[in-house]
Amino acid sequence: MKNNIKGYALGVIAAASYGTNPLFAIPLYEAGLTPDSVLFLRYLVALPVVAAMILLRGRGFSVSRRQLLTLVVLGLLVALSSLTLFMSYNYMDVGIASTILFVYPIMVAVIMAAFYREKTGWMTIFCIALATVGIGLLMRNPGGGFVSVTGTLLVTASALTYAIYIVAVNKTSLARVATLTVTFYALLFGLSLFLVRLLAAGEHLFPVLPDWRLWGCVAGLAIFPTALSFGCTNGAIQAIGSTPTAILGAFEPVTAVVIGVFAFGEMVTPRVFCGLMLIMVAVILVIAGPGISGPLIRVRKMFPRLRRRR
Questions:
Q1: Quick one: 51 exposed, middle or buried, by C-beta within 10 A (0-12, 13-18, 19+)?
Q2: pLDDT digits (tens, 9 = 90+) for 153-180
Q3: Residue 140 main-chain phi, psi, to 5 deg
Q4: Cα 95 to Cα 138: distance, rounded to the nearest angstrom
């Protein structure tokens, strides 16, 4: 019982800490940093933190040559996912962006059905439709105008690249590599994308920040939504399993919306709230999968179909 409580607590902390991305990123944007600069510093500071976590857990850094080549590709994929998400913050509310991002588990289900012939049940199809309706409700700003198409496309690209990353990790030899080791190399090779982009744009790799609190934001990005989130996720999976941990991931967009409201003065109208709820319900149902079908069948049996009179 104690192990279960610990696992659920770790799962909540992991999801909530990942949802703090906007809290630390937006102040850096306001100080004049670009998404590339913010992510370069985030990945750079997170690397030694993740390395220390690997050593403390007694893990190693060794991987095969084939795995290393796969990690190069996956590192660029996860970096592209981070970049498109952080770019979207310039076009739309951070709460809405983070919620649309959370449709990536549905994308994973579609990829697995299309390319790996996993059976797609009626529940998955229903949830895809439910999430689509939810995203449609988010497509208008409180002022009446539509949410930026550019921002929506950027978040969708972020969700898709992250979904491909998740599928690739599970369907390649990396499935046998420790999660933190995969994370370390993904951050290492992902860092190269931002390095190349910054050098090509002629930007400084280490910008001068006018306030020490901004360096606190850089440290916060590296620790909370990166090192802490990954570490707690691993602990939660070991304690309660992957499915409950994934379901607790619904706290990610909730955290982002709360931060958007209280830290950045964003508005949550009834329509936006309904959209958020539809998306989260859809994703939770997809992740829960067979675990929820049993209770639904039992509820249905409580209401037997009446025979028609002739």
A1: middle
A2: 999 999 899 888 888 887 888 878 887 8
A3: -130, 140
A4: 10
